[in-house]
Amino acid sequence: MEVLLFENREELGKAAAKLIGQLVRKNPKLVIGLITGETPLTCYRELVRMHREEGLDFSQVVTFALDEYLGLPPFHPLTCRSQLTEALLKHLNAKQENLHFLDCGSPDLDRACEDYEREIREAGGIDLQLLGIGTNGHLGLNEPGSPFDSRTRVVELSEETKRYLSRYFGSQVPQRGMTMGLGTIMEARRILLLAHGSAKAEIVAKALKGPITERVPASILQRHPACTVMLDKEAASRLSP
Ligand code: GLP
Questions:
Q1: Cα–Cα distance between 4 and 1 in angstroms, integer?
Q2: Is any atom of ligand 1 closer than 6 Å to the C-beta of 141?
Q3: Ligand 1: centre distance to CA 35 (Å)
């Protein structure tokens, strides 16, 4: 694992965007796994700036959203699809047909999950998977106890995640979601995990330095051959030297 430290979330976001920009320039058809939440916002802002001011071209880039909440109306502003569209995708020149989202409106959710896995395979696999980390160590919505070989599927959200999400959803917190599995995530050729803020310090230390266990889903990243971790000082504060 390569661990890179930054002064604050702005610097971290810029560095993440710079890396993504380099990969897109090298391979204009890059297949990127995208995340939601607060963590990637400084990175997404910088990518939009690079597109506008430096002509970074997303016209052939392919994206797959990492997860989605179940039970929200299709145009709810907090669906992962809406969040990604607002924060990033609508500001770029990516083609609609290259943007993939988990279909929570499908009458057959298991089938929709299988279709998603197939779409990822047909795109040639994910070149770069972005990741954030939940305070309980979850990746996407792979909560503690998720099998390391899990695939895209419907999951129950943990109590901790629901508590965390209530800051956005109030009393209407989703109970279930759809997420790429840990097995799906680990097949990405390269992984970029981002974390900032002191609330993530303890779980970052466990994930990076603790035992590899399904109780801490992100600990599986220690086994990935090409995983870069970008942290701000606060998120890195519990990592022993
Ligand atoms: C949600 C998402 C995760 C994300 C996590 C952290 O649960 N499903 O993919 O990593 O939140 O969110 P934040 O970046 O807001 O801390």
A1: 10
A2: yes
A3: 8
183 in ligand 1 pocket by Cβ < 6 Å?
A: no
Residue 39 Cα to ligand 1 midpoint, Å, equals 7
Q: What is the pLDDT of residues 13-39, one digit of tens each?
A: 999 999 999 999 999 999 999 999 999
pTM of the model: 0.97
Mutate to test the pocket of ligand 1, among 164, 179, 231 (most ligand atoms within 8 A of CB): 164
The finding on whether 37 has its CB within 6 A of some atom of ligand 1 is yes
Neighbouring residues of 73: CB distance < 8 A, sequence distance ≥ 6: none
Give the model confidence (pLDDT) of 111-165 as tens digits: 999 999 999 999 999 999 999 999 999 999 999 999 999 999 999 999 999 999 9
72-92 mean pLDDT: 94
Instruction: State which H helix or E strand residue 167 sits in.
Output: helix 159-169
pLDDT (0 to 100) of residue 75: 85
Output the pLDDT for position 206. 98
CA distance 33 to 191: 9
Q: Please, what are the domains in the chain?
A: 2-232 (3.40.50.1360)
